[in-house]
Amino acid sequence: xxxxxxxxxxxxxxxxPIPWRRMAWVTWRQHRVAMGAAxxxxxxxxxxxxxxxxxxxxxxxxxSACHPASSSxxxxxxxxxxxxxxxxxxxxxxxxQLAPALVGAFTGAPILGRxxxxxxxxxxxxxxxxxxxxxxxxxVPLALALGAMAGAxxxxxxxxxxxxxxxxxQTPLAPVLFGxxxxxxxxxxxxxxxxxxxAGALLRRVVPAVVATLVTYAGLTxxxxxxxxxxxxxxxxxxxxxxxxxxxxxxxxYTKNGHLAFNGVQKSAVNADRLxxxxxxxxxxxxxxxxxxxxxxxxxxxxxxxxxxxxxxWIEGGWLLxxxxxxxxxTLWLIRRRAA
Amino acid sequence: MNVIESHGxxxxxxxxxxLRECSVAxxxxxxxxxxxxxxxxxxxxxxxxxxxxxxxxxxxxxLDGITPGSPEALDAIAFVAQDTPLYRNLSASETLRLAQSxxxxxxxxxxxxxxxxxxxxxxxxxxxxxxxxxxQLALTLALARRPRLLVLDEPVARxxxxxxxxxxxxxxxxxxxxxxxxxxxxxxxxxxxxVADYIILLRDGGVQLAGEVDALLDSHRVxxxxxxxxxxxxxxxxxxxxSGRTQTHLLVRATATNPVPAGWETHRVGLEELTxxxxxxxGASALPGPxxxxxxxxxxxxxxxx
Amino acid sequence: MQTAAATTxxxxxxxxxxxxxxxxxxxxxxxxxxxxxxRLGYLGPGDRLPRVKDVVASxxxxxxxxxxxYRELETKGLTVGKPGQGTFIHPSVRxxxxxxxxxxxxxxxxxLTTAERVGLDEDGVVALFASVMREHLERPDGPHIGEDGxxxxxxxxx
Lengths: 340, 306, 158
Known about the structure:
Strand order of the largest sheet of chain A: 1-4-2-3
Strand content of chain A: 5-15%
Order of helices and strands of chain C: HHHEEEHHEEE
Shape of chain A: elongated
Oligomer: heterotrimer
Helix content of chain C: 40-55%
Order of helices and strands of chain A: HHHHHHHEEEHHEH
Number of strands of chain A: 4
Distance between the termini of chain A: 36 Å
Number of helices of chain C: 5
Strand order of the largest sheet of chain C: 1-2
Structural class of chain C: mainly alpha
Helix content of chain A: 55-70%
Distance between the termini of chain C: 43 Å
CATH class of the largest domain in chain C: Mainly Alpha
Number of helices of chain A: 10
């Protein structure tokens, strides 16, 4: 009879699990292209921010040192600054908005999407490592790497944008900028990555998963910026005409004698022409408020003060992290129940 | 020891029973052929055995009581899926490294020696190898794990005859040298008799035929005689009849020592002929133990219970 | 892209071939080929039969089939298995040597020529030979034929 070279195991004693570090080379080798591309995108972005940021800071230092600020020379140098450097800032903002979506989708979706598409899951899930360890051994290191790169980018971006905050008195809570700084940018990147991984596990093909991730991410950022963020903490409502600087104004409406005026609609929807009818000579909005006050109208403003930037960052980062965790858990659940 | 043991195993897949009432006890140290038409449940059964799918009803144990998909089972069973999935852009040596990383036992040295013997360059990407080379690479990966059970899903379906022969020679040498048990599925019946010593025939998700090949061939004969007499032949169960105007061949469940009617001839049955006969007769079945006919009225579109 | 040893089953004088279409069970084909090789002198006492794994590699057959054939040969008394070393032709098997075969062949041709000259046709030759052979085998001091057709006694392979 042929001799058995493998010892028979009698009682099924539990086998020691294969160490996690075995996944290191596997994850690196299979995702090095995707991670290289992500590094190129985020690294390139960081490089751009660094190089243009230095120029911007230099130029701004010159402009802000100019006294008196309202003189024509200073005003002109300020306008020159805006002409030269604001387009760069716009480009930077656009790139920062796109980066998490692209990086997350193209890195996350293939992890499971490609395995299902090519059928290689039938090979790799029947190896000794087991599918759970295999999945975690990929998802966790890739998420950490992306998170670290994203964190560096967002710190760099905050530094880059400083002059523009001083320049135009923008609120740090502005929807376009909020998600690019602090912890939010990292959290958004992780959310995109986890959405990509989940989509890949659910749809089982790479291209549809990438598309689904991009669409979902776009929807999520719009929902956060337009609806959710306003309500993280109850907005402050004030009838004062002097609002704290850099506040994020959510709504403004007018009352007269206790009743809502102008059909109660928010200020942005009020027909500017109707207001001009009352106050013909008041183009700037602050002066408009004063003018209407003279006519007996009370201006109500709901806003989020700029000081709430960091609480909002933690809230947004928090729920995004919870979402990412749920999506990872969902991915693992899909892997566990996946029938061949 | 039973390398696969199931009781009433069933798998519901997209609303239909891909496998139902499958009760088998496959002994170790055999080369088991799992045959049947396309869609008969072969891949489903194999996926259940290697832990890629979970049963809907019934029980399944491998290698004497181990649950499929558990770490012990993953460790001891090697699987080569249909179309031998490999990572196309990994080289052969990188694929070996991958296998080494993902398994407790992996004999890399013998695997590399084997690839060298086969003339498979280690630096080439797996996607650039020929079909036969890819199959041999997948088989090398599986055997280097020194499994106790090797499961192959239609391993030679897309290979040319030479590649097919080389592949099976490698499998059989592993059986001879290392005592691996093999379960392989195939819808090609030729050459199976030389390779397999245990056969399971699946049909519409149910087991129609199961047993040692020698025992099955010893317990069936072909009787050739006049058609007029064939119609009232009743000495032994007739599995399949092939009739001409004057002459009929009956495939019966009888042994070589059973008496043959006067004027009749008796022949040994080959495995291919036996299998085809059962495939043509859905109502017939030959299972170890008390024979139980598989009902042929069960429709294919049975809805799975909620 | 050739695999292991298809030609040299090292150490054994013979190699096996398989007639796939013959309908004869594989293990019987191997048994007959060994007996035939002994008859023709290709194998002699003490010669080693091909190793199981070499047969498996070259013929692509189940190892149990080879083992079954070798067991059958051992039961027939033609071979003896030495664990760890292989299966060998039994030392007391005496094959008919080739030169004797050539002589036998020559005398047979002479006999046939005589029969032909006398006027015995093919059927007559066959009938005469069969009856003489039967008498010869059934003689009292000859090899004893058992009921199941197996032969005991002299271990000549003739």
